[in-house]
């Protein structure tokens, strides 16, 4: 089974400069190759990885493109492979450019024969990478397998190395434990059908106030400097904002990983709603001819949804389920928060408030998120019992029971 191992790097100053340079070269290769693919598509033609790799090898011999030879050839080829995969998956016109201001530098060494990892002592290890040499990293956990590739990237001003490792563990058999339903909410991040509520404040009030002040100063720096947009003061503000957001994001990631592992160890089937977070957090501004309504309220709801990390939790849950023998089932989210789990009555009036659910038909009262989690569990059991797809109506049906005369 392929797993990931991520460690904090301690690069020397010259290694940091090289890493920045390699990241810039990979970004230039990505953007140039993407532009070439789009121009080919405009003419009705197509270019693939093999042709672009051959042209890049020829460009290295050109004196005007000699800077391409500074980076290891394998990371440039891997950039072209990643671009081809992205274009095949999303379409050439839907792949984004890599911006110098918004994209963190990152590059991957795909050849395991050129990667060597050693442990120096209890706290430190080192890895040998092409043209970077030996780089030291904090040994926070064992590698636990054979290294397949290594990715070096910068995040919030700090450099990390991630190893893709083959741990030698085969596919885990189903654990056979009982099922559970999980509802993702705004007031409470996660609620289970057993009545457990999981929530955490990822940013303290002081951090939120500091975040708001930095954003205000950053906005004023644009109006003050005019054309001198990328001033040193603005760069310092952006770096401070990045570090603060990274601290909040790390807490959110840690919370999702802990709860996901707890659920995957305790249950055999985990039913969740099939939520399209990108569509749910779309702006309500509308168009010039048809302006949207409740734009400020929708913006606040979008921030609350993104703050809870719905997508990150689902990704962590799928990874944890793979290692602990649990199954994750996605069900249709329609009316799960308005349906009474006791009698099945569906009405908007059932949801008295964000936390209170009282059925207007039978009087059943429960926590609103827990009631929704029970409905999600029931839908997940129906899907798995019929053997149909996880989302939408199943095609198969259980055979009817024979009538005994």
Automatic annotation (TrEMBL):
The gene is ydcM. NCBIfam families: guided_TnpB. Pfam families: Cas12f1-like_TNB, HTH_OrfB_IS605, OrfB_IS605. Residues 1-43 form the Transposase putative helix-turn-helix domain. InterPro entries: Cas12f1-like_TNB (IPR010095), Transposase (IPR001959), Transposase_put_HTH (IPR021027). The lineage of its organism: Bacteria, Bacillati, Actinomycetota, Actinomycetes, Micromonosporales. In the C-terminal section; belongs to the transposase 35 family. Residues 310-376 form the Cas12f1-like TNB domain. Keywords: DNA recombination, DNA-binding, Metal-binding, Transposition, Zinc. Residues 162-282 form the Probable transposase IS891/IS1136/IS1341 domain. It comes from Asanoa iriomotensis. The keyword Glycoprotein does not apply. The keyword Metal-binding applies. This is Transposase.
